[in-house]
Amino acid sequence: MYNPRDTEKKQRKYWEENQVYKVSNDSDKPKYYVLDMFPYPSGAGLHVGHPLGYIASDIFSRYKRLTGFNVLHPMGYDAFGLPAEQYAIQTGVHPAKSTAENIARYREQLDNIGFSFDWSREVQTSDPQYYKWTQWIFLQLFEHYYDNKSKTARSIDDLKNEFAAHGTQNIDAACSEELQFSADDWQNKSAKEQAEILMNYRLAYRKETFVNWCEALGTVLANDEVKDGVSERGGYPVERRPMLQWSLRVTAYAERLLGDLENLEWSDAMKKMQSNWIGKSTGAQVFFDIDGHAEKLEVFTTRPDTIFGATYMVLAPEHDLVDIITTADQRAAIDTYLDYVKSRSERERQSDVKAVTGEFTGAYAVNPLTETKIPIYIGEYVLKDYGTGAIMAVPSDDDRDNRFADKFGLEIIDVIDKSKYPGATRSDKVGVMINSGFLDGMEVPDAIAAAIAKLEELNIGKEQITYRLRDAIYSRQRYWGEPFPIEYDEEGIAHGLSLDDLPLTLPELDDFKPASGGKSPLARAEDWVNRPDGRRRETDTMPGFAGSSWYFLRYMDPHNPEAFASREALNYWQDVDLYIGGTEHAVGHLLYSRFWHKFLFDKGLVPTVEPFKKLINQGMIQGVIESVYMEKEKTDGVNRFVCAGIAARNDAENYTQIPIHIDYVREYGSDKSYLDIDSIKKFTDWRPEYKDAIFECGNGVYHKGVFTAKDDAAGTHLMTHSEVGKMSKRWYNVVNPDDVVEQYGADTFRMYEMFLGPVEQSKPWDTKGISGVASFLRKYYDLFYDKNDNFTVSDGEPSKDELKVLHTAIKKVRDDIERFSMNTCVSAFMVAVNDLRKMKCNKREILQPLTVLLAPFAPHIAEEMWQQLGNSGTVNDATYPELNEEYLKEDSIEYPLAINGKKRATATFAADASKEEIEKAALAHADLQKHLEGKTVRKVIVVPGRMVNVVVG
RNA sequence: GCCCCUGUGGCGGAAUUGGUAGACGCGCUGGAUUCAAAAUCCAGUUCCUUCGGGAGUGGGGGUUCGAUUCCCCCCGGGGGUACCA
């Protein structure tokens, strides 16, 4: 009888002692790099959903190793982060301490599943020896700018030299603001002025920016950390606020990040998400004169063709020109409106996008083509951050402009005749130009080109490409992150530390609450902040994505003190061949990693343009959420719970759903799920605030431990509400892999996770089904042993049928692993073992290859059988069984015989039978004859090896 | 709203290029074993049926000798994104 507990323990010890999973950088074999998205070690530990991707990647890694690759399959921890710091604020426990404890727990849970990670390569982003290099890469970004002409990052010194020699004349560089000055101007500027100008170009730069400020978390957040106007972590409100912040100029790489997506083996959905996030749009930059002002109003439009229909302009309320152009008459009204805008949270602003608000500034712009004066408004619907923060409004061809014009009674001029395009909507780019001067009669695409040409000719605009992508805000007002390797001198000029001064480690603190004035807790460590030479250290820390943007490179050479990784290691491992992780990192982590990688590539520091060749997104393992209905209003001061059946008959408004621990629910997860008396007792013990509550179901009423039955009902049957949802502490439905492994063993757990369905798909966890996998492994074991546990493998010749079973499995498993279909691999193993069992096969020549085939999935039992079969060394060093198609050949094939596509009979023909023979035999088949009676056979289709179809009329 | 994914027995799912729909597992039913239960083993299990058959992959239409698979329209579920000019 197979005992997984002892065997798995024994084999894990064997692997540990023999360093079976240690990977060398020095190998003649081809490399293969399999990476899992490393976890943030949360206090909750792992639930059964987390290891899904790790198991799939582990199977793939082990398979690759067996087929002759030197496989890198490392694991580490994204160890900096907010939760540990929030916990520190609440409890005073240092984040380093709680993080270390959480990591120890994660490690224990991971070890329990039998992964082939090379733990000697583990990285932790909060380790100073790791973040030394995070800081170093940041400094490289600080010391570089992006040259649009050569499409590459270049040293900031090159830029300085260029400024000194020619000013901005020849500069085409990514920057926050277009600047123009001569070489003389540059020479005459003060050191501080020069430093400010350079900041305008650095890839890591500091600037006053409108940021997502989260008061509850006491920090700013990047755009991808904000969802629906609230923080992704914790769901706290976020407001827009101008602050002096470090940012990374990811926008400089927008075009390359977009273009290089094409060659990646990522899902279309994932590529789409990235390209939507980058959000490229082509249009025109246009300058409008402002009546009575020297300033010009710059706008971006994708519809330069509609410029004759531009009857007003709208600025974002935060636009710099608002203050300048507002007339005395309108000042009060504008101030009132600005107050209103300020009072609105980001969330409110996003939730009622249909509401039209705005105010007239009193100023007028001049439409450069019609030369008419058009009013300038401000309005919430124009965003400071996109384009130039100002638009030319064309109410005839834009829905938002149209609503705005309606509300404020502004002129609408039709400029496109869409009568040739029935069904076209206002915003569709089709039609013939009208009321548009020289554009009249042109089709829209031609008109766009002609309008741009005209703007260029008049020197008031040009073609322009705009991206939705924003620069990544890189400062966090937190403690538990990488300190910036930056000091400010007395003039406030930022200086990067030298490599010798790295790592710049965090100061010790015992209070982790934010300092006053929206400052990081680091600001309180005055000895740390103030340097002896009068300089001051930056007190913000880096965001979560800093350490995770390059960790995959560190695994290649994790202990290197001289570089983030050696050139040899980088040249050997190159890039990640297969990356597995969740979709939640679609735009954050994956985009920033690609950006850093491209920058490092520009500097010649990594050999590839992209870090992750192939990406697979594992689905979520969901849990069952069980809840009971409670009446919102107490009855006689007592809570009242009712059966789901009763609740369904009444108004849903009257009830709250209280989540209940799934362990208390009978038949949980089904539409029959219910609570009996025992369940209710468990529930009220767990939630004592409900110990006096009334529980009413169709059968009767339960109150304070007593059940009063209606009629002669046996007991309470309080129906609960079941749904499939997230597995989380919050819903009391978490299943811990440790418990499953304890009961069934790691091999069973691994195979069952795979057996649940395709790795990419989300699916609910249900422990009930696991017995099938457990009995499969037992049946596999029983092939080697008799009833009395004697090892009975024979050296006899395998039969043709036995070989066919083995080779069918080899083919299926090999092909399915390659296409990452792990669930069907498990089925294939079950089929093979069931068949061999029927044949009572105990032949070494069958069982040994089968064991190697199984090893990636069930490594413990496979290792055990490998040893029992008398092999030396580990099964991991075995050779993957080779497929011999000869064994799969059939002498005869069963054909479906169909009439008009409907199967009517089956018949077996020799594999080498000719089409004619098959056709003749099929038509003569008795079962078919019955159906053919009285009908005319029009055609017979025979697909050799497949089927026969008779067409009758 | 837009974009992407998805919809197959009681349940998880299989069918890789259009070719026997429901592999494999759970559950369920019956039987064997057992004092009994658990465990194990064997058989059955898409639905309807007057036992001849008939229907069937979210619904409707189309292409085809043949459609879960390809095309069009609609509906449900999940995810992303949203005054993006």
Helix-strand blueprint:
Layout: H1 4-17, E1 31-36, H2 51-66, E2 70-72, H3 82-91, H4 95-111, H5 128-142, E3 144-147, E4 152-155, H6 156-166, H7 183-188, H8 191-199, E5 204-214, E6 219-221, E7 226-227, E8 230-231, E9 239-248, H9 254-259, H10 268-278, E10 280-290, E11 296-301, E12 312-315, H11 321-325, H12 328-343, H13 346-351, E13 359-366, E14 373-378, E15 390-393, H14 399-408, E16 416-417, E17 432-433, H15 444-457, E18 461-467, E19 472-473, E20 486-488, E21 494-496, H16 526-529, E22 536-537, H17 544-548, H18 551-554, H19 567-573, E23 576-581, H20 589-602, E24 612-617, E25 621-631, E26 640-642, H21 644-649, E27 655-660, E28 674-675, H22 677-686, E29 694-697, E30 700-703, E31 706-709, E32 718-719, E33 721-725, H23 737-744, H24 746-755, E34 763-764, H25 770-782, H26 800-818, H27 822-838, H28 844-854, H29 859-868, E35 892-899, E36 902-910, H30 915-924, H31 926-932, E37 937-943, E38 947-952
Parallel strand pairs: 1-2, 1-23, 12-14, 23-24, 25-34, 26-29, 35-38
Antiparallel strand pairs: 3-4, 5-6, 5-9, 7-8, 9-19, 10-11, 10-13, 10-18, 12-15, 13-14, 16-17, 20-21, 20-22, 25-26, 25-27, 25-33, 28-32, 29-30, 30-31, 35-36, 37-38
Helix pairs in contact: 1-29, 3-4, 23-24, 24-25, 24-27, 25-27, 26-27, 26-28, 28-29
The protein binds one RNA strand of 85 nucleotides through α10, β11, β15, α14 and β34.
Dominant shape: globular
Can you count the helices?
31
Average pLDDT reading = 90
The largest sheet is: 8 strands, mixed
Low-confidence stretches: none
Whole-number tally of structural domains:
5
Task: Note the beta-strand portion.
Answer: 15-25%
- CA-atom Rg in angstroms: 35 Å
Number of strands: 38
Distance linking N and C termini: 62 Å
Structural class: alpha+beta
Binned, the helix content reads: 25-40%
